[in-house]
Amino acid sequence: MTRFSSRVLRSAVPALSFGVILAAIFVIQPRAMSYVGMNLMLNLALPIAFATIAQLFVLTIGDLDLSIGGFVSLVACIAATWLNDTPLLGVAALLACIGVYALLGALIHWRNLPSIVVTLGMSFVWLGCAVLILPSPGGSAPTWLTAIVKFKTPYVPLSILGAAVLAFVVHVALMRSAAGVVLRGAGGNAQAVARAGWSLLRVKVTMYALAGCFGVLSGLVLVGTTTSADANIALRYTLFSIAGAILGGAEFTGGRVSPIGAVLGALTLALVGSLLSFMRISPDWQIGAQGIMLIAVLALRTLVNRLEAREA
Amino acid sequence: MQLTPIGISRPMTASPARSPTPLVALSGVTKSFGAVRALGGVDLAIGPGECLGLVGHNGAGKSTLMQILAGTLHHDEGTLVAGGAPTGAFSVGAAHDAGIRCVFQELSLCPNLSVAENTRLRHPGLKGFGWRQPAGALIEATLSEIFPGHTIRPDDLVADLELGERQMVEIAMNFTATGDRPRLVILDEPTSSLDHSVAAQLLAHVRRFVAAGGSVILISHILGDILGTSDRIVVMRDGRVVAERPAAQFDRAALVAAMGHVAETAPETAAAAVAEARPADRPIVEARPPRQRGARSLTLYPGQIVGLAGLAGHGQTALLRLIQNAAGSTSRFAKVEGSVAFVAGDRQADGVFPLWSIGQNVTIRSLAALSRFGLIDGRRERAVEEAARETFQIRTPDMDDNILTLSGGNQQKALFARALASDAAIIAMDDPMRGVDVGTKREVYARIAEEAEKGRAFLWYTTEFDELLNCSHVYVFRSGEIVADLPRGELTEEKVLQSSFEETADA
Amino acid sequence: AQEASDKTFALSNNYAGNSWRQAMIKSWETGTKAAVEAGAAKAADAFTTGENSPTEQAAQLQNLILQGYNAIVLNAASPSALNGAVKEACDAGITVVSFDGVVTEPCAWRVAVDFKKMGVDQIDYLATRYPDGGNLLEIRGLAGTSVDDEIHAGLLEGIKKHPNFKIVREVQGDWTQTVAQKSVASVLPSLPEIVGVVTQGGDGYGAAQAFEAAGKPVPTIIMGNRQDELAWWKEQKDKNGYETFSQSIAPGVSTLAFWVAKEILDGTEVPKDLSVPTLRIDQDGLEKGLEMTPEGGVTNVEYTEEQAKAVIAGK
Amino acid sequence: MSEATLTTKRPGLKRLGRSYPFLFSFVGAAVIFAVTLVVNSFNGAGPILTAALTFGAFTVVVGLGQMFVITTGPGNIDLSVPSTIAFAGAVAMKLMEGQDSLIFLGLAAALGVGLVIGAFNYLLIRALKIPPIIATLSSSFIIQSLAIAYGRGLMIKPPPLLAEIATGRVAGLPIVALVALALSLVMAVVLHRTVYGRSVAAIGQNIRAAGLAGVKVDRVRFATYVLSAMLAALCGTLLAGFSGGASLNMGEEYLLASIAVVVVGGSAVAGGSSNVSGIWGAALFLTLLVTMLNTFGVGAGVRQLLTGLIIIAVITLAGGRKGARH
Ligand SMILES: Nc1ncnc2c1ncn2[C@@H]1O[C@H](COP(=O)(O)OP(=O)(O)OP(=O)(O)O)[C@@H](O)[C@H]1O
Ligand SMILES: Nc1ncnc2c1ncn2[C@@H]1O[C@H](COP(=O)(O)OP(=O)(O)OP(=O)(O)O)[C@@H](O)[C@H]1O
Ligand SMILES: [Mg+2]
Ligand SMILES: [Mg+2]
């Protein structure tokens, strides 16, 4: 019984952090407590949430993707140029990108390579492609894309709905479905999965392809919001996605991940930025305050774990 | 969706034992790892409806042979016939199709998944919408059938389970049938982390399974289990089969002799000589389990060997850890004078450094003593490694080989060597004989006695009753508490069991 | 009209990791503090993000919208990637004035430096020094940014004008002195005779160091108003009459943008595209330039309301 | 140096890469150097190598610290390296005031800054149980703010002697490279021949087992984070001496670089096994790569693309390591 309740508590921590920060924001800036306010605070968090989920797939099998930021940038550049001007070419290019991701998975498996080095190399490759496609910032997002991303849903902003759907779908697919068990198992004990007769190659390829898919979605949502691209637009997503996943309770080993936590983690990161700008800190310390805030959020997690340990 | 409980394994229509067509037959199978010849031409056949006992010293090649049967290793030469047809490249899939299931010596569960999810991993048939419920029901049913009274629930995370519980899950999983039924279940040291009663439940289940027409290969270093459960016993030595007879034609002494060990000379008396405590004036360990009610506490004097008993997972390991951590720092629950060395029982989780050589694994606990001017003295390190190899007869061509190239029992010996080579005054042992063969066990007992004679103190948690006879007195644990302190003279298996189960009124 | 104002201003900045940006924030703080005290504005807060990331800055803009500032003065991480957020600000009735890093969104104002001209000027200058032309080394900035692209385009245009010049090698300096130094040092061994090094500002000292370390004669390096560059130049000038020129956009342009925003809020008709000249130091002005540059900093001027009006009027 | 490796006996290229995982980075560096020379029609071999040694040296210094951190196990990484470089460099320059006599004071202060940062990092990791990657990221933000508030990004000239040391040569070899080499030798001994080094590797393989085998886990991890920060601080001081002062962004490129030299150099990304030689191979490889691409004179996009592809090609040829058995 304690086993169960502690697990529930552990998984409630990301939601708790999110709630605490949101409450702080509402106190400092009541204007945020509205449809418009929530949308303004969170619509740029949606692409980060997608990137975080992409990262999560890679983390699930015990790998790390240092290239997701460059990849999302490239997707943004493709979407703002080819996808707009010659949609067929654009779609083909995006599919090819996912294909390359899947191949990376295969390469990493075949040669038994450390994912960090391969994706480190890929981060240069993606950025190089982005610069080649869009040497100077510009381009414009396809109108249909902007229309979708900026669509005003009734009552609840699209960014929140989107994040909720994302979290739910990935949760069901990865945490509840029968196929998800195999994928996560490969992160926990790859050998056991192989001994049970599953193909590790297929697992890796699937996970990297999924990462690619969600990277593409992230890039699309991003250009839809910004309407225009830049080769350097999403380089920070690499760090954000890792931070978001970790905030959401993921661990670097053993396939311990939580899609709902990861999405909440990404949103929490965005809210931290908002809270900081509402607090009006001297510019010297604005960057540092971001660090302190991150520490505070994670310290909260530790606190909860302590309480739980005392209970047990 | 209504899934009829696919059910508890009712192995196939019972066929007469020892039928002419064996389930699997190996002939002339060899396997080498680099310079190590693990199998040197093995012939073996197992028919339906029999339990084959497989014994042999550590590193004899038992696990390697089983891995070949399970399709996770490929043999170099020889033939393997499964299901009547010779198979060239035998794969995991082929083994599965032939109805072969294997409980590996080093467990293969995914710690990040729940029990039900691990079940799903093993049984590809469990899929589709709402798979969880039947998967849970299935494993729950098998667990209850084999281990009545267990407390494992399908949605427990494997990482949260005790080693013994994990072993139970793994065993149950392999006896579970979904679409296709298990015909041959390989159990590679299944009882090494189970306590006595649970082990008995398992062996009883093996008999039932065999009676219903299934086959089992049982590997164990606990010869009583082998003798009492098998129909036929195969003895391996140095990668070859050296004896094969119906179980009835073996007795303990014959088995030991066949394995290549010198016959035993009444083991208990050897230990008895040293087991008498010589309490010095001051105890070097005084500890109270955190959950202990009442005044009882554990004390250990220099030169003493003290046993910890009780059912697995009732706080013995936790207390050993606590004592280990309390050495060199202050703790609310334990006062420890002198350094502690720990011998892990769960060697993968608590003991082995998988990237290191055998030698490095042995010396890690003694490095400070092997250093001169802050630098580790390579020559002295090597000397310790070689001494360890000799005293514990670690089977390897080279102590520089990776630790994982050792057989399970030999890894365990390396861990023993690590602790005994150190300068620790107190050795905490967490069921340390898991998977160690009889011959080595006897030598280790002797070593322990010798060391105790020299003044070292031992805390010895074990799930095997016989080992407790080496101790001067035994603390019995239940639910994280010490519930009894039995002096050696009063030690009987019944008493230990009684204290382990019974709710005592007092404290 | 200098009556007490109830208008609030925010500075949105995207990078804080160099002396130029630090001087820019400082100028904003000193310049606007005076304005607030004089009652020309109710508040003027500075906001900065760390890593030159367009998405972070876009999120910051949206937060500023939510806080209800009347005007946002913006040094943008990207001319295009912030357009979505800038549009939202405009739609919320906020005046957006971009400077230095300007945005292309039509609803915003731009206080722009003609980066292209900065490129052309470098070649023009070199043409006066070396009428016969020669080989050039180019140190580029951050790849994929518009400033980098435009200065580069300016250089190419200048070379079209003076075809006897040729850029023989292009290296990446990322606007970071240590990177520039490394890149220059790494190509020096393979470089033919060159007459000049064209830069994007701030990389001159590192380049000079690299040449000196390799024991090669230092060509004419175009400087970028950093004090260390000017000091080095002065040293060389005194020693051997070294000649070059130095140019950069003054960090105090943030105050100019502030005053422009104030004018717009006051209802003055202001064209969407304004241009500020670069701050240029020539051989003769070197001593004076060095004097007005703080130790280890960038040559700077802050702008007044009058200067802003003059710029608006196109003078 | 004796490198800890698996000794599964199998012939050929794979075997070589397994017992000498660092070899491939040297081979890669050599190939790239050769290509550069060919393109350059065999001119300037000396200067190219000298430049590579100089700039490689800075990466090696931070890479050594990062290596120890990464060796302590999966998830361990020090992201505060860049801001430590900037802050420590600024502190050193400010205290030295451009005077030779104050060099030691400045250096000591910089190292002190490193010590405090390392201790703070581990405090976050241990006391607040924050995953290292986020702990060091957060502290890097704080340090960056400190650096801004402390130095306002103003560049203060280093003392002439320091500048001379940082840019000088002895027997044709850059002094910084010699310093880095000496440091590497010491670190190699520390890694392979001291209790601390063994403990780091033990923790990286199995932290639980390490604790039970008597390794002082907390002390060792603490020392490791402090070591990393102090080496970053040293690098910051040298770099400031080399490039004419400390600037706020001078550490930026060392975030990726410090990680890249460790992992390209053949240390196990998941911890437990590492080597010092590989750091040199990788540092030379990566700096020579920049030289080569600059020599080719290709545009930024193609340059990035080639950088990535070459890194992947080298690591693919080197291959990974397989666990022995389970
Ligand atoms: N991957 C490997 N590399 C090198 N040697 C190996 C490897 N696997 C097994 N061996 C060697 O093969 C021999 C047989 O090992 P195996 O594990 O089959 O023994 P075992 O009979 O199961 O012993 P135990 O009773 O200790 O479990 C041992 O000498 C072992 O060292
Ligand atoms: N890393 C950067 N990211 C974004 N913008 C930058 C960066 N570096 C410089 N800039 C901007 O580029 C323009 C010119 O930069 P320049 O190279 O002249 O100076 P700097 O980088 O500030 O100098 P230093 O590095 O010597 O402090 C300015 O608009 C400056 O704000
Ligand atoms: Mg075995
Ligand atoms: Mg610059």
TrEMBL record, chain A:
Subunit structure: The complex is composed of two ATP-binding proteins (LsrA), two transmembrane proteins (LsrC and LsrD) and a solute-binding protein (LsrB).
Keywords: Cell inner membrane, Cell membrane, Membrane, Transmembrane, Transmembrane helix, Transport
Keyword presence, Lipid biosynthesis: no
InterPro entries given in the database record: ABC_transp_permease
Subcellular location: Cell membrane
Gene Ontology molecular-function annotations: transmembrane transporter activity
Transmembrane helix among keywords: yes
Functional description taken from the UniProt entry: Part of the ABC transporter complex LsrABCD involved in autoinducer 2 (AI-2) import. Probably responsible for the translocation of the substrate across the membrane.
Entry membrane topology: Multi-pass membrane protein
Protein name as catalogued: Autoinducer 2 import system permease protein LsrD
This protein's GO CC annotations: plasma membrane
CDD domains: TM_PBP1_transp_AraH_like
Primary localization class, coarse: membrane
Source organism superkingdom: Bacteria
TM segment ranges: 12-28, 40-59, 66-83, 89-108, 115-135, 155-174, 205-227, 233-253, 260-279, 285-304
Source lineage: Bacteria, Pseudomonadati, Pseudomonadota, Alphaproteobacteria, Hyphomicrobiales
From TrEMBL, chain D:
Pfam families associated with the record: BPD_transp_2
Transmembrane segments: 20-42, 48-70, 102-125, 132-151, 171-191, 222-242, 254-271, 278-296, 302-320
InterPro entries: ABC_transp_permease
Keyword Cell inner membrane on entry: yes
GO cellular-component term (any): plasma membrane
Entry superkingdom: Bacteria
Main location: membrane
Described function: Part of the ABC transporter complex LsrABCD involved in autoinducer 2 (AI-2) import. Probably responsible for the translocation of the substrate across the membrane.
Name of the protein in question: Autoinducer 2 import system permease protein LsrD
Organism: Aureimonas glaciei
